[in-house]
């Protein structure tokens, strides 16, 4: 068995590399690429120190003069010698190769020897952006004098475990201490005796206080340092950024010129820099489904986030008209859209989707983007049912719910109708999805909307581009479900919205029938005139007026 450990990196941009360019590359390309390999990297944290120390020669101490540090938790150090990790480094993008040529960097690998944490310790990767902003870490790199003292390394480790950590635990704000040693995966590791200690502290720490000073001034520590330690380099860092598997740094991106746009080699990630910064990328679910998303709006990581869940057969672009209004009228909001399960090919062998699976997809996407709570979740049709189910399953993950044009329970007739639509999509010698698109848009849209030929054409093309097998195995989420028994206990404030002509008015009656079941006081139902199943596409301004005060 290979020990777990860390990859420890110190890095200093050279003069001429703009800070925003450096941070945007690091946060939106380099870090996420590693966190997308969870079998290797379980977390990745970036730190900054504004106080440079003396130059050093090797290992962790080599970072003494570098301003930035990153530490990646590695599940098993042998993975760093694997082909998968090697391919990651060998397959650098042109941008990454150019950026790496403009920085001074040192990497070291360490095996974990010991760890102890406070009861209140929570991994920073489990918190939302800003929740651990004041957190800090102290790094202590120690070179052991193996030639001067027998068993020097063992003596240092014994002191650290048996005395030092116990005393540090009494320092206000102490959260965790870990001890590492140069990893066996490092070339020439057998000739190196370097230890690295990482001490995590909360923002309200007592570093420099009496308890901390006492931990650094004991007879045992003095003996160990005098007899066993050749050199010790100590440095304090503040948390700068927590990597996730999905790029999300709009702040650095917004500070770049439009000419700094980036598209990955696989075309799955692209950035639009400038004042209207946007990131288009993807997250991966537990069952290996790839979920495309688009993040834009207010670039602050603390900005309230509104997420949008599309209807079956459509893409995240169905929200384009409404998003344009939001960006003009609500610049305080960060906006997240994604393609719900069913839009694209699904993992094989296929598994029929459920509303719980769709709620889990959203939960995993938010986790990948480190969004602990949404300001609001807006969903329509299948997205409306998903949004309500998400509010029921994860009420602490959102503050408000807007659910549109959906039913709280399915019917046998509805299930049969979906089976018939699957048959249409699979038929007609491969043209079935086009036929279904034409039928679907005619069924969805209000007669007044059908006169808007550009809107009709755009929506028809969007539906026709859906993956047929994805649709087949995802429309099952709308079969045989009933959320009504759980709606009363849902504590999330909710607004229901419906197009006046949806299902020729039948859905207005249906939603009016169950709105009183939602929460302790029921939910308000608002009707958008001259709209059918997708009021935000057919009448975006009227839809916005319907939700403006609630949002």
Automatic annotation (TrEMBL):
Gene3D superfamilies: alpha/beta hydrolase (3.40.50.1820). It comes from the Eukaryota. One of its GO terms (cellular component) is membrane. Residues 304-535 form the AB hydrolase-1 domain. This is 3-oxoadipate enol-lactonase 2.
